[in-house]
Each structure stands twice: as C-alpha cells, then as structure tokens.
Amino acid sequence: MSEWWTYTLQDFLLFSPRTYYRLFELYNLAVWPAQLLALALGLAILVLLARPSPKAGAFIAAILALAWVVVAWGYFHARYTSINWIASYFAIAFLIEALLLGWFGIIRRDLAFSVANRAGSIGLCLYLFALMIQPMIGPLLGRPIVQIDFFGLMPDPTAVATLGLLLTATGRHVISLLIIPLAWCIISTATLWAMGSPEAWVMLAVPLICVTSLFFRGRTS
C-alpha cells in the first residue's frame, strides 16, 4: 500500500477531462434555450443594481436563490452524480445556499446591494466577469462553444457571480452567505488543477480577491 504522502490530486480524480467537459455539452444541449433565460436574469440583476432599494435587493436575492437551486438539482443531482458520487453532497450545499439567500434576502429583507464603495466596485467587476467573460474562457482555450458554462446553470460562474454580488451587499448575514461559494471555489480549483486546466487559476484568484476586498472594506468601515 502506498504511503499517503505519495498521492496527488490526480489520484483522487474520478473522471477524465474529456468526460467532465462532455458533461457540460450534454447538459447545455438538454436545457437549451435555458441559457438565454439565465443571461436575461443576469442582465436583470445589473438593472436592479443600478436602482438600489429594499425591493431590488429582494429580487436580486430571489434570482440568486433560483440559480443555486437550478445548479443543485439540474446539474449536480441530475447529471454530475453520473461521474462523481460526491456530487450529491455538492447539491445539498447548493440547496442550503439557496435557502439562506431566500431567508435572508427575500423573507428577512436583510440584504441591500450597492456599488457605491470600493468593495462594491470590485464585486461588480467579479459579477460582470462571471456573467460575460468566464463562460468564454473554455472556447478561448479550444473547447467547443457548446461546452461553455453559464451563470445560473453551472456551478463555477454561479459561485463567482454570487461572491461578486455579495461584495456589493450590506447586511448582518453577508459573511454567512459567503462560506459556501468560497468553499466551492476551492473545490473547483482542486478539480481543475487535477485535470491540468488553466481555469484553475481563475477559481483560485476569485476567493483571494473576495477575501482581500472584505478585509479592506472592514478596515475602512
């Protein structure tokens, strides 16, 4: 039996990169044209950010909660479990995040979103990255366009977009809402790193940017 320190991340990978990205392709084909609706909801969030109000905050939280439910059920439970048994636990975590967003953002109305400060501006940039740029990284790396991952349908851009929006948010429970998206970024980084994907650097950079922004927001508040 090999010693534990001889193992690498690749040894724990349950699938090949080809299988992983093929799953993206099958998922996109199965849910089309949901991608258009996801993009429309993502753009609606930008409109709501431009007109901050308690009602706008509740609508943003509702869209985010819906996105996390869709990823939990449509991607993790219905598809990712076919190649990774741990996906069932990921689905539960994403459902928990959706419930937290619903409770604090919709029912309690405890989230207000604004880009008025530096952290908010960084958060907006992260959100725009997740919505517009992150889905195109795959095709730029040579993957078929049908394998791109969308906010509201795939976990990576959904987690990044949520982190960006939470950087613009104020409320007593913002830190609690950050935990699961940050944890997913770390898990995704490990998965992409094991597959040798350059996208691992993106998912590694996002939590570092997020935590740094929170630190400076705390210093200036």
Explain how this protein is built.
The protein has 221 residues and is mainly α. It has one domain. Helix content is 70%, strand content 2%. The chain has eight helices and two strands. The chain has helices at residues 17-31, 34-50, 54-77, 87-107, 118-140, 155-167, 174-194, 200-220, and strands at residues 112-113, 169-170. A two-stranded antiparallel sheet has the order 1-2. Helix 3 packs antiparallel against helix 4 (87-107) and helix 6 packs antiparallel against helix 7. It is globular and about 45 Å long. The relative contact order is 0.14. The model has no long low-confidence stretch (mean pLDDT 89).
- Gross morphology: globular
Series of H and E elements: HHHHEHHEHH
Strand content: under 5%
Counted by DSSP, the helix tally is: 8
Range of helix content: over 70%
Number of domains: 1
Strand order of the largest sheet: 1-2
Biggest sheet: strands, sense, closure?
Answer: 2 strands, antiparallel
Low-confidence parts: none
Distance between the termini: 54 Å
The counted number of beta strands is 2
Q: Please tell me how large the radius of gyration is.
A: 17 Å
Main structural class: mainly alpha
User: pLDDT average, as an integer?
Assistant: 89
Task: Supply the key terms.
single chain, two-stranded antiparallel sheet, 221 residues, mainly alpha
How does the SSE layout of this entry go?
Blueprint: H1 17-31, H2 34-50, H3 54-77, H4 87-107, E1 112-113, H5 118-140, H6 155-167, E2 169-170, H7 174-194, H8 200-220
Helix pairs in contact: 2-3, 3-4, 3-6, 4-7, 5-6, 5-8, 6-7, 6-8, 7-8
